[in-house]
Records
---
Amino acid sequence: MTDVFADLVGQDEAVVTLRRAAASAAALLRAAAPAVSRTGAPVAGGADPDGGHDDLDALAEQADGPGAARDRAGADPGAGMTHAWIFTGPPGSGRSVAARAFAAALQCVHGTGCGHCPGCHTTLTGTHADVRLVVPEGLSIGVNEMRALVLRAASTPSGGRWQIVIIEDADRLTEAAGNALLKAIEEPPPRTVFLLCAPSTHPDDISVTIRSRCRVVPLRQPPAGAVAEVLVRRDGIAPDVAEWAAAAAQGHVGRARRLARDPEARQRRDAVLAVPRRLTGVGAAFDAASALIEAAEAEAAASVAELDEAERAALQTALGAGGTGRGAAGAMRGAAGQLKDLEKRQKSRATRAQRDALDRALVDLAGFYRDALTMALRAPVAPVHTDTAALAGAGAQKWDAEGALRRLEAVLECRAAIEANVKPRIAVEAMMLSLWKG
Ligand SMILES: [Zn+2]
């Protein structure tokens, strides 16, 4: 089975909800279509002749009878269609994969997310005219970007189905951008659907008022077995490598694929997992902190360098660099402003990339101390890092459960501190000292 939900690994419950909603959405569209069936016969329950009531609730009532939308929403939150959704789950659980798959199912000309029709295909490849994807590159999504988006999303869908806005990392909305979005969600244009992705529905991630207008689709951390299975099936990775990578990535599908395929990613992970062994004194702890920060900076710089350069070149071409004559001076001043804006955006993106790289390293490190803890407790669970299990076992003997737990907590505190905007170097140095002293 290769429909649009095939890549949503280990999320059976969410897939059932989304399939049902897509089917319901297709029924709404059929009910709103001109009251003539494909055979040409008149159909009962067709569109309102005024055409003025085609918002979702009215459509639902046409499809299922008066009050059906309300009853359904109250009785069974998994059924039916609504105009705003939040996909939550830990990083790598597939929030944006789920949102894209659902968007494809809504645009599917068969209404089921077949995976083959033009609606499914263009949505999944990012070229559907009625699907807009917001991927924040910097630390936050600004209000101007959001206002422009909301405005465009209010237009009639050109494909005759739905206007869909997918917002990845909705937790990075600025407050003003959140308010602009809230307005659109509170008074939704008739055929517009908002799909938000966020780590959780905690008020730090998504405002309570936005949350109250959305249906939540919780995704779980997919089990390692399911991740390994998809790496083998879809990416053609050897089963033993897939199993190792799925365990090491702790349920993060994208990370597992990268570990399985990219030798540099494996080397970076090896360097991180060598940290516990290197912590032999204060000086070594500071050295380890520097190494970790610098590795994250290098990884981030490599990941954005190509894009930065391409954007700069594109902007310079668009501005016609080197123009002379009347108006050229004014144009140059405008150009300087645009270049400055671009540099600002790129800097923000680079900072984000650094934090993401550092966070990946910290998650690996946390996995190591988690292994030491479970071994000290003799808990019957598989280690995260099978290749450093012996080292974690030695740590378990030396530190006992309490010492392993303190170290695990030090790593988690470091992540929380960086998330709360503590300077990464300061947070990492504090963590390394705790890891050394225990
Ligand atoms: Zn389709």
Note: Residues 108-110, 113-114, 116-117, 119-120 surround zinc ion (CB under 6 Å).
---
Amino acid sequence: MTADSDAITASQEAAKRNLWLHFTRMSAYADGDVPVIVRGSGPYVFDQHGKRYLDGLAGLFVSQVGHGRTELAEAAARQAGELAYFPLWSYAHPKAIELAARLADLAPGDLNRVFFTTSGSEAVESAWKLAKQYFKLTGEPGRYKVLSRELAYHGTSMGALAVTGLADIKGPFEPMTPGGVRVPNTNFYRAPGFVHDDLDAFGQWAADEIERAILREGPASVAAVYLEPVQNSGGCFPPPPGYFQRVREICDTYGVLLVSDEVICAFGRLGYYFGSERYGYQPDIITFAKGVTSGYSPLGGMMVRDELMEPFTEGTATFLHGITFAGHPVSTAVALANLDVFEKENLLENVRTNEAAFRATLEKLLDLPIVGDIRGAGYFYGIELVKDKDSRETFNDDESERLLRGFLSGALFEAGLVCRADDRGDPVIQLSPPLICGQEHFDEMEHILREVLTEAWKRV
Ligand SMILES: Cc1ncc(COP(=O)(O)O)c(C=O)c1O
């Protein structure tokens, strides 16, 4: 054994003995290696053995500018040398101020106030806590419920979990924080029969379901509705035309806050700084995380309209909420450097210019019998897998288990592609590559997917 292989063996043993991977069946690694990623460069990452993978998921919808960017690493080191930490509790620091102002400039409308967090779940919870306290301060103390869509993922901490629409990941943690209410999502491929061939009518129906839910729950009890611009979980559901305009109208009618959860969809994923910009609606709150730093340091937050801040600007009123590491100096410095890269390299333009080619390349896969639907926007796509294309019949639980967990996840990785095979709704493969990608990377994704999905079909 060489020194290198000794080190790999030791690290594998320690990974299995001491590390707890998230949302991972640890038993899956009993007889095999834990995949260990050691470095990255551009849209590629490399494992312990030096094998290269195309990062088709940008880590976890995070690495917008790609891996190995020394300018971001240097910004982090400079800031750590100057001021590594100070809290935002009663104090400010220059990078938090600068980033808040820059984000306010970029965000649509009067979303001028930034409350930082360290993660997306904290951003989602912060928005709910703000909504509750805001309504208590403004004479509507009964408003505490939050609407969100079936299958939508909004995070895992107990508050965010109550907003999340995935029953399977909530079950073990019942009872939930009270107040979470579900409305339909915008999966047109699985639209109800009476609107299955009319996208506009489907969008209108899905938006109107939000109104019906508000009326059913009692408008005086509803605080907010949480929607992603393009819903991730379930496999990339873009909004039908007019959907968000109708939702905005409904929110205004009933005094409900519209929270645009852009933890994935902000910072270029859809070709704009914010997904709400792409679809032309004005949120009351935007939640963000992930791409704001491209993952070079953790950061999240919410952006809030002036009006929501007003009750907190006088007398003793205080938003009674805070997080030790929120708006960390190193993370905010990194976010500023990240935004500099966006500007210097025209990353939004890159996505807008190339997204049609990305879609067209993925759509070649529609000739495979297992590929039912390809949907998404920008650099964010879901591929829905089906057992029968004509009837759109999906796989049952056993088949999903064999296909996704038993074969596809491993085989795609083995073939050199990081992506996500997900069966929290119908089985889908999710793609969300770094925003620096171009045609050669689209082709590489398509080739690997074609090869592995062809093999998967033989096993159905
Ligand atoms: C839309 C959305 N909201 C919230 C979250 C939770 O973010 P985090 O994992 O940073 O807590 C996620 C994570 O993927 C997400 O996609």
Note: The two ends are 40 Å apart (CA to CA).
